[in-house]
């Protein structure tokens, strides 16, 4: 019954909400602390989170699903210890337990998770939590709110709070906000009986708009995650490292057919553009190595994307002990009536919203009934079913993989995307042109994304699609086409399209790990090849550098490819060489090629298209060498 408006300074889910571990969970480690320290608050937090986990899986089944998570055990005494803890987790969940946890023998654990380190493995325990597409979930919540009458606006920044004085008492009260349209620069006022501050890591900056003297309550903590190829984990089994080398917890989870690993937990400054650091990436890789088989080489070059999210840990301003961290969310009301919600986690977002609105109703005497959000389906969930994708394949001629992706991303709204999908001109699929070949995202999603309030190329590659979070290089490859499509939808001129490309590439470079990935191969990279390898790679290089110039160009590569009947378009060849052209002079020099091969040997670089192309060409040319008759035994 309340008339509400939502103002988001950037895009929906542009901050921490899209940079999570993608789990919907009660918090196994919090339950452990609750039991060990007899902490009732932590127990209640876990209990509430498990209830909210069940609700979230129910109201957005297309965006979330139960996920089995394996806890490998390497000491006999840990098996009963962990088993009791996990069973207690099931018990606290009660009737909302997703599936009962169970114990695995060593052989069965290795069968389900063959990448697991075998040495000293005793067995494993498997328990269930939920997993979701966090950015799409956030957007679904905003779209659902809009469907029920809320006014929602992204790229609307609050510049300052508006205040008025109460008649009689003369007391100042917050009555709205002065805002700015980030895209146009236009300023406007939004008047309200109650203003709620729900700004995550930026909680204190808004609180200080209300009162400059108020002490900070937010203690920001950076959590870094990395994404690796899907072969690092089974399709439907996660892994939990309950005690890393520094006492933290690391999750290793399948997500969107890739593998996500994280997170770190370190103090940081509040920023809109957090950057993943190399030391955090290496920490995660080292922890992953501890749990994977020695047969699996965990390479730095296999990190396809990396990001940092800022978790807003808070101290309770109403508590006498202002130094203690509050593990749950807190709601506070200032003297001027500003309602602040801080802390919490993704899983309990609905309970956080309920508690916040309840506090607002009480503080401002707002006319409203009780919360109705339990069991309320989110956008796309109403008519979704697990077999919905089959109708997309049958009715529209989409690839099965693309249809499954659309169904799990848009739910029953997937048909709206399919309706605007372009004809491919092929026998199959009939419609649905992919943005990049290895991912199921199609061009129609860009058009639909604009309808979902996407206003920048970054919105599209990171939150409407998740390309930037899955593979930064694939996202960069898709950018020109994405910008072209968005340009047509939003009437961008050439200058605007150029600006969008530059902004998106900068985002990928700094915030999604492209910089730390590219830093693995620079013009200062050390060559650590043994002499025999140097000679071998020099010979391979000379097969392309026939003129002995000391460098190769696109023309050199084209000539060799033509000789083995391989065709690659000039733009793709330019991109392939550009990955290795460290000094950006339009050619690949011998020293750059040796730096590349050295980085590949050390595991710092993987998936180099030039390295694979040159090796393939060398092998093909060797096979085509004519064997003289006198050496072949005469022949026929």
TrEMBL record:
It comes from Alectura lathami (Australian brush turkey). Its main location: mitochondrion. Residues 532-567, 568-603 form the EF-hand domain. It is found in: Mitochondrion. Calcium-responsive mitochondrial glycerol-3-phosphate dehydrogenase which seems to be a key component of the pancreatic beta-cell glucose-sensing device. The gene is Gpd2. The lineage of its organism: Eukaryota, Metazoa, Chordata, Craniata, Vertebrata. This is Glycerol-3-phosphate dehydrogenase, mitochondrial. Residues 33-60 form a coiled coil. One of its GO terms (cellular component) is mitochondrion. Its cofactor is FAD.
């Amino acid at each position: 019954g309340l008339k509400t408006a939502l103002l988001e300074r950037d895009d929906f889910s542009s901050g921490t909400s899209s940079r999570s571990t993608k789990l919907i969970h009660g918090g196994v480690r919090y339950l452990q602390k609750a039991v060990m320290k007899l902490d009732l608050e932590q127990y209640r937090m876990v209990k509430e989170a498990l209830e909210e986990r069940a609700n979230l899986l129910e109201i957005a089944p297309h965006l979330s699903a139960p996920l089995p998570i394996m806890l490998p055990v390497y000491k006999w005494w840990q098996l009963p210890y962990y088993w009791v803890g996990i069973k207690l987790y099931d018990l606290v969940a009660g009737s909302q337990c997703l599936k009962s946890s169970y114990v695995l023998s060593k052989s069965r654990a290795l069968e389900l998770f063959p990448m697991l380190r075998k040495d000293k493995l005793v067995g494993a325990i498997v328990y269930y939590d939920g997993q979701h597409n966090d950015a799409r979930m956030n957007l679904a919540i905003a779209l659902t709110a809009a469907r029920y009458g809320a006014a929602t606006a992204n790229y609307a920044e609050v510049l300052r709070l508006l205040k008025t004085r109460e008649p009689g008492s003369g007391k100042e009260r917050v009555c709205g906000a002065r805002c700015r349209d980030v895209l146009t620069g236009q300023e406007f006022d939004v008047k309200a009986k109650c203003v709620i501050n729900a700004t995550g890591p930026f909680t204190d900056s808004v609180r200080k708009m209300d009162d400059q003297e108020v002490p900070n309550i937010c203690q920001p903590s950076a959590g870094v995650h990395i994404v690796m190829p899907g072969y690092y984990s089974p399709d439907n089994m996660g892994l939990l490292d309950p005690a890393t080398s520094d006492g933290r917890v690391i999750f290793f989870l399948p997500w969107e057919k890739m593998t996500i690993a994280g997170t770190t937990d370190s103090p940081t400054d509040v920023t809109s553009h957090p950057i993943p650091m190399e030391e955090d990436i290496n920490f995660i890789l080292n922890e992953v190595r501890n749990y994977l088989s020695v047969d699996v080489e965990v390479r730095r070059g296999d990190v396809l994307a990396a990001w940092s999210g800022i978790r807003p840990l808070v101290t309770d301003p109403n508590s006498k002990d202002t130094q203690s961290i509050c593990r749950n969310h807190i709601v506070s009301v200032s003297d001027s009536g500003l309602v602040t919600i801080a802390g919490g986690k993704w899983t309990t977002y609905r309970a956080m919203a309920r508690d916040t609105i309840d506090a607002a109703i009480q503080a401002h005497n707002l006319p409203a009934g009780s919360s109705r959000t339990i069991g309320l389906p989110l956008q796309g969930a109403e008519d979704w079913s697990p077999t919905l994708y089959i109708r997309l394949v049958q009715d529209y001629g989409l690839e099965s993989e693309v249809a499954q992706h659309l169904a799990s991303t848009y739910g029953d709204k997937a048909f709206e995307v399919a309706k605007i999908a372009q004809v491919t001109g092929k026998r199959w699929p009939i419609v649905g042109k992919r943005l990049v070949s290895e991912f199921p995202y199609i061009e129609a999603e860009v058009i639909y994304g604009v309808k979902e309030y996407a206003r920048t190329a970054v919105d599209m590659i990171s939150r409407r699609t998740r390309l930037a979070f899955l593979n930064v290089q694939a996202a960069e490859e898709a950018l020109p086409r994405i910008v072209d499509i968005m340009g047509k939808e939003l009437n961008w001129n050439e200058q605007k399209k150029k600006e969008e490309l530059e902004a998106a590439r900068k985002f990928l470079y700094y915030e999604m790990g492209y910089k730390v990935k590219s830093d693995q191969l620079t013009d200062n990279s050390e060559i650590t090849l043994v002499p025999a390898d140097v000679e071998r790679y020099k010979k391979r290089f000379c097969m392309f550098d026939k003129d002995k110039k000391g460098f190769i160009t696109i023309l050199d590569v084209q000539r060799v490819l033509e000789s083995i009947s391989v065709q690659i378009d000039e733009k793709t060849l330019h991109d392939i060489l550009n990955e290795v052209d460290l000094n950006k002079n339009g050619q690949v020099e011998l020293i750059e090629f040796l730096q590349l091969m050295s980085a590949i040997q050390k595991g710092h670089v993987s998936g180099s298209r030039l390295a694979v192309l040159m090796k393939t060409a060398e092998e093909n040319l060797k096979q085509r060498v004519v064997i003289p008759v006198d050496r072949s035994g005469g022949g026929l």
